[in-house]
Amino acid sequence: MTRVEVPPDSLFGPDNLPYGVYVPRGTDHRTGARVCTRLGDHIIDLSVALNDPDFASRDLNTFLARGPRRWREVREQLRELVDRDIHVEAIHRPAEVELLLPVRIADYVDFYASIDHATNLGRLFRPDSEPLLPNWRHLPVGYHGRSGTVVVSGTDIVRPRGQRRTDSGAPDFGPSRRLDIEAELGFVIGVGSELGTSIDTAEFADHVFGVALVNDWSARDIQAWEYQPLGPFLGKSFATSLAGWVTPLAALDSARVPLPDQVPEPLPYLRESEKWGLDIELTVRWNGQVVSHPPYSRMYWSPAQMLAHLTANGAATRTGDLYASGTISGPAPDQRGSFIELSWGGSEPVTLDGDTRTFLEDGDEVVITASAPGPGRRRIGLGEVRGRIRPVHESR
Q: What is the rounded CA–CA span in Å between residue 70 and residue 19?
């Protein structure tokens, strides 16, 4: 037995305690996976530390389905671990392990909840019209994504191919030339809801377990040609990266803030009795260079409102469902969460390592990190979501 020492300035202190799934490096993913938490500079195997079979699993779904009471009980057990000795077999260094996709994804929905992002894209795509479409301030706009292409942070992303509009107006087919990122925050559903029922904004924390960073990669040229009249399809469905750590809502109590003013007032089913804005600061690095600091606190629609709207028609939810905020952007140029905004549609290139750049090139790596206020003056970390662009396979 041994005590885990946590540096006082650690982003993974006792007020955080996120959940992930790991295997020791070189171990078979099918048989060696276990649920873990991170404490300081150590990975703690919960199946060993808590002697709990729910955590001898390759995903969090069994634990998530237990519901809020069990979530609270385990968090209390983890807080107690901080102050006592832990079996050495449960303790690993981050370099010794590989993080897997933490949740078995059931369904995936992506929203469009940042007023700054929506306004920026409206100005780019419709310069002679109002930037926000008439419905935008009345409902959280979203679309259904593809759960089978959600991958864990660190997975390489192969450049997608698709139809692109040419200067003549006719399409051709080939690799995306305008490959982009979307810095987002994802929400993981623990307890689902039945078909034909809806979830009220006040029930948000009864269903959503926690949050994880998301990069919803986007092929802007493919998207621009295909999205009318039915919206995103191949320009979005090729890959969505999810962080290896899921931070429980309980760790974000100190980060909760009121939403910006919503005008006009939302319809009754979208009104909130609690504040579910979140003061989370993201950082986007492009090939190691910081290019943006998107602020989640600026989001117009809250995650509780997104979930209420997602289920307003009676759509069922399931354990492991993931829904994401859409691109997080602020009003300043250095707060934009996508490269189409940073480069203003390619007309204002970004200086990167002495070169001017607009969209992603093969070999580029993007890393998105985030932190939020914790109790006192400490901050908690949400880990990272990382991905590198690979060229289209020659065999394709």
A: 14
Q: Check residue 253 and give its pLDDT.
A: 97
Structure confidence by residue, pLDDT tens digits, 314-351: 999 999 999 999 999 999 999 999 999 999 999 999 99
The rounded distance, in Å, linking the Cα atoms of 78 and 19 is: 11
CA gap 168, 108 in Å, rounded: 36
Q: CA-CA distances (angstroms) from residue 11 to 75, 104, 137?
A: 17, 26, 35
CATH architecture of 19-99: Roll (2.30)
Residue 118 has φ and ψ, to the nearest 5°, of -65, -40
Contact between 32 and 23 (Cβ < 8 Å): yes
Domain boundaries of the chain, sorted by first residue:
19-99, 108-390
* Residues carrying an active site annotation: 117
If you average pLDDT over residues 371-395, what whole number do you get? 92
Q: Let me know: does 222 contact 162? Beta carbons within 8 Å.
A: yes
What CATH number belongs to 108-390?
Answer: 3.90.850.10
